[in-house]
Every structure is written in C-alpha cells, then in structure tokens.
Amino acid sequence: MLCRLASRGRSRTQLIAALGCSASRQKHTLPDLPYDYGALQPHITAEIMQLHHSKHHATYVNNLNIAEEKYKEALAKGDVTAQVSLQPALKFNGGGHINHTIFWTNLSPNGGGEPQGELMEAIKRDFGSFGNFKEKLTAVSVGVQGSGWGWLGFNPDQGCLQVTTCYNQDPLQGTTGLIPLLGIDVWEHAYYLQYKNVRPDYLKAIWNVISWENVSARYTACKK
C-alpha cells in the first residue's frame, strides 16, 4: 500500500503538546532504563549504553528544561523574538528526549526475531514481507547523512505503516505527523565505540535486541 506522509501542518502544535510546554509543567527527568546497561551485550556494549543514557540523553533533558524555563519567561514578558529564537533549542533537545525515551523501550535483552499478530499482518500488508520491511528500514537508516534516526511509524491519515528518517533529533510525530513505533538511533554516539564508522554492522546487530512486544503495543495503542 502506498501512503503519503501525514500532514505537516500540525507539526508545531504536536511538538509543543509532546513537550508539555506550559507554565505548570514539572521539569523533565531522565527515565530509568528497563534493563541493566550490560543487558544488551554483545550487540550493544555496556559502555555505550551507559554513556548514551547517562550522558547524552541526560544532556538533552537538562537543556530542554533550561530552554522551557527561558521560553516561559519569554511568554510572561510577551517577548515574541525570544520565543522564536528558542524554537530550535526546544525542537533539538525536546526531540532528543522524546526519541531516546522511545528508543530505550524499543530495545530488550529478550528481543529479536519477528513480530507476531496484528503488527506482522500490517507489515506484510504494507511492505510485502517482514524481510522487505527489515531491508528497507536498514537501508534508509544506513543512508542517513550525518546524524539522525530511522523510523517505523503509523500514518493515521492513511491507516498504514511507513518507513522514514529524521535528521538530527527531529521528533517523528512533531515533524511528519507519523506516530512512532520503532526508532533506530544512527547518531555515532549510539555505536561508534563498538562498531567504529561501520554503521551497517551496528544496524545488523540491533535487530537482535528489538522488542517486538513494545513495538506491537505501540501499534495497538495508536489505532485506538
């Protein structure tokens, strides 16, 4: 089934809603991982997971809180120029927080294999086979120039699954309208210490720790 990207007209509204950008919002916090840092070895080392989670993700969270505080002050002052100037920081750090929060739950030491049930049926419907889907998501993720993410998303307008990429930390739903189901981080900090500059090897390995239970639950929830 061919399907187009969902409307981008909702991008700014969705991103602000996802960040919970309001005066009463409590500060964002770094979520705990649902497994130990070493649980995904040998596919992803404990050193990478610790740095990725406790340093990189933590930095996005801290900078998002700073940007939101400045944005709240700009709103209170009616300073539109300051509000506009803060949009890149909100998008980058907010996206980094959103993306990584999804990413950790998409992985599991008990992952790998193939999905079952409705998700597998949808994959076969929209990509022809699981093998075709896996090949396509791998290819677009390898092809990201610089830093970014490969995504499997649900298009609510078309009612179908779609593979796409986002650059830097652009959040999938906030920039494309697609609901994120599975995200693969292809920033070098996600793999360089183990796989050096050979991104295809990292992508080959990560399929062994994909939590299809989590991806399936996301697919079920987005259709309600």
From TrEMBL:
Task: Name the reaction it catalyses.
Answer: 2 superoxide + 2 H(+) = H2O2 + O2
GO terms classed as biological process: intracellular oxygen homeostasis; negative regulation of neuron apoptotic process; negative regulation of oxidative stress-induced intrinsic apoptotic signaling pathway; negative regulation of vascular associated smooth muscle cell proliferation; positive regulation of cell migration; positive regulation of vascular associated smooth muscle cell apoptotic process; positive regulation of vascular associated smooth muscle cell differentiation involved in phenotypic switching; protein homotetramerization
Q: State if Oxidoreductase is listed as a keyword.
A: yes
Which ranges carry the Manganese/iron superoxide dismutase N-terminal domain? 27-108
Q: Where in the cell is it found?
A: Mitochondrion matrix
UniProt domain Manganese/iron superoxide dismutase C-terminal: residue ranges: 115-218
Q: Keywords assigned by UniProt?
A: Manganese, Metal-binding, Mitochondrion, Nitration, Oxidoreductase
Cofactor(s) it depends on: Mn(2+)
Binding positions for Mn(2+) per the UniProt entry = H52, H100, D185, H189
Question: Partners and quaternary state?
Answer: Homotetramer.
Q: What is this protein called?
A: Superoxide dismutase
* Lineage of the organism: Eukaryota, Metazoa, Chordata, Craniata, Vertebrata
Gene name, Swiss-Prot/TrEMBL: SOD2
